[in-house]
Amino acid sequence: MGTTFTELDPIFHPRSAALIGASGKPGKIGRVLMDRFLDMGFRDLYPVNPSEREILGIKAYPSVKDIPAPVDLALIVTPTNAVLPAVKDCAEKGVRAIVITSSGFGETGEKGLELEREMVRIARLGGCRIIGPNCVGIYSPSSRLPFPLDAGKESGKVGVVSQSGFFADYLTLAASRNGIGFSKAVSCGNEADLDASDFLGYLGEDPETELIVAYMEGARDGRRFHALAREISMRKPVILLKGGTTQEGAQAAASHTGSLAGSGAIWEGVLRQTGIVSAKSFEEVLDCLYAFSCQPLPKGRRVGIVSGPGGIGVCTTDACLGLGLEVPPFSPQTLARLRRAMPVVGGSIRNPLDLSLASLVNPQVYADAISILLEEENIDMLLVVAVIGGEQLRDILLKGLGDGGGKKPVAVTIMAGGPQSVAGDIALLLKSSIAAYPDGARAARALARLSEFAEFKRGFQGNQ
């Protein structure tokens, strides 16, 4: 492991933590984090508040220096004018890392930047690193470190680095509700000290992280980011949502985290060159996350479409072709197998395969079609449009995938029931390692991103 991993890994595995600005009063961020630490089961937590002797049944201390034990991590949630004194106390105490959630620093202008630089100077003298300010900190389920929102205690293989606190917090909450587990997540905010590239490098080396999701508005060192991103993409996918691609967005980024966003065109070029999976919205981040977290990479761009409704099958074909995917004819051998297995009335055995009313009357035809197309040499991926949902759909899909599950990526579009039932079915399928979506175009886009990343890896390996 490199020096980045060695230096940063202890930050994600603290033995003790001080919450400076802890509170027992509802409506305070210090109370929210106290509740979350206790919910997560973090053991050696030290509340710090000069006005309180006890908070939620735990002894409180006037200052971090008054804590009678070593402190690995300190979280500062005080008003802006109290942050610098708290940093000085942490440096004198020998705290290893400080998370500063408070805002009012570099994002406000030059005076705020001067204050950030002074905090970093003091922290470094004490051998301490800073995450933030203007962030929500670190989520590490295995270490019981919480985000403000309740993303859960279950660990997984997805790492997150974000210059936006809410993006990281809400992403882990939303995806964990659908069965996606996270190894670590970090919100780095204004990046007075440690920045997104530092944490990207860490997650790239982290053996617990197999897939990375990032939100960035800019990079302090563009050359370093380019080299890191390309090297990491050789080993694990990086899904990135870039904020500030327009002039107006860049101005918003400056007031959000103080970040220099850079040209949108330049960033698009960097993302292509480095193999980063570029998402255009939070929705697309989730769509890509669901595909990359449970599906293999395809060997090519050829999609086989299995659809209950004929019209939606046609529209999904258009969506695939518009994204640069191919919808090729099935081989004569596959057509013969489909002819024997599929109903003879109302449908079509060509690509897209139209199951018509049989998909409602006899949903088992989905399983038959999937098992046949998994063996079709002219097809690299499957896109299934289902008009049934729930456990019935899950069981039919698992039957169709059989021992062939994992050979080719499969994306499922659910068109049954209302939006709420579809959302529940998506979670149900994801927990069975089946990527599912409420719309065929979104499923097609997720498959396209898988294909583009697979091509990047093949191209790199071919040039070695």
Describe the structure.
- Strands 8-10-9-11-12-13 form a six-stranded mixed β-sheet, with helices on both faces.
- Helix 3 packs parallel to helix 4 and helix 6 (196-205) runs parallel beside helix 7.
- The protein is 43% helix and 17% strand.
- The two termini are 23 Å apart.
- It has 17 helices and 18 strands.
- It has 464 residues and is of the alpha/beta class.
Strand and helix map with partners:
Elements: H1 3-8, E1 16-20, H2 29-40, E2 44-48, E3 54-55, E4 58-59, E5 73-76, H3 83-93, E6 97-100, H4 110-125, E7 129-131, E8 137-139, E9 155-162, H5 165-176, E10 182-187, H6 196-205, E11 211-216, H7 222-233, E12 238-242, H8 247-256, H9 264-274, E13 277-279, H10 282-294, E14 303-307, H11 310-322, H12 332-341, E15 353-354, H13 358-361, H14 364-373, E16 381-386, H15 390-401, E17 410-414, H16 419-430, E18 435-437, H17 440-463
Parallel strand pairs: 1-2, 1-5, 5-6, 6-7, 9-10, 9-11, 11-12, 12-13, 14-15, 14-16, 16-17, 17-18
Antiparallel strand pairs: 3-4, 8-10
Helix pairs in contact: 3-4, 6-7, 7-9, 10-17, 11-17, 12-14, 14-15
Strand content: 15-25%
**What would you give as the CATH superfamily of the largest domain?**
Succinyl-CoA synthetase domains
Total of helices: 17
Share in helix: 40-55%
Mean pLDDT: 91
Level-2 CATH architecture of the largest domain: 3-Layer(aba) Sandwich
Termini, distance in Å?
23 Å
Q: What is the total number of structural domains?
A: 3
Based on DSSP secondary structure assignment, what is the total number of beta strands? 18
